[in-house]
Amino acid sequence: MLLLSGGKNKIMKRVKAYGCEFCKKLLYSYSGMKAHEDKCFKNPKSKSCLTCKNFNFTGVLNGNKLSPNEVEILKFKTEGTFKMQWDGDPDGIDYPVLNDEFKYLYDAEMQNFCDADSKILTKLKTRCEKWEG
Known about the structure:
The protein is α+β, with helices and mostly antiparallel strands. It folds into two domains: 11-40; 51-120, no CATH class. The protein has two helices and eight strands; from the N terminus they run ββββαββαββ. The protein has helices at 30-39, 68-79, and strands at residues 2-6, 11-15, 18-19, 26-27, 55-61, 64-65, 109-114, 119-120. A hairpin with a 6-residue loop joins strand 3 and strand 4 (26-27). The relative contact order is 0.18. The model is unreliable at 81-86 (pLDDT under 50).
């Protein structure tokens, strides 16, 4: 049961809600929750990208998946954990930049990628015919 505050007096009101066992979303109606669970991206029965072996959140450059080495180098951009050699910065500020041979990775981005289709996923989907559990 949920407790909600309402009105000027901030009186608590007990309400009945149903929760998705996969993503923890709450809805007031049983039928609404049943419909949601059938298509929930985190429910393996929906055969969605998030539960597929072919799904990756990985580095992509110009529509192509980066190599494992390039992904490790790209982590510098997202996590600040880059461990390669650094070039000096011309303005004297002490922060790292990529060596010349890796500067092309500045244009790479972390994106949802489907290995089965070898393409970027602009939208997650359910009921995929290439889904693997």
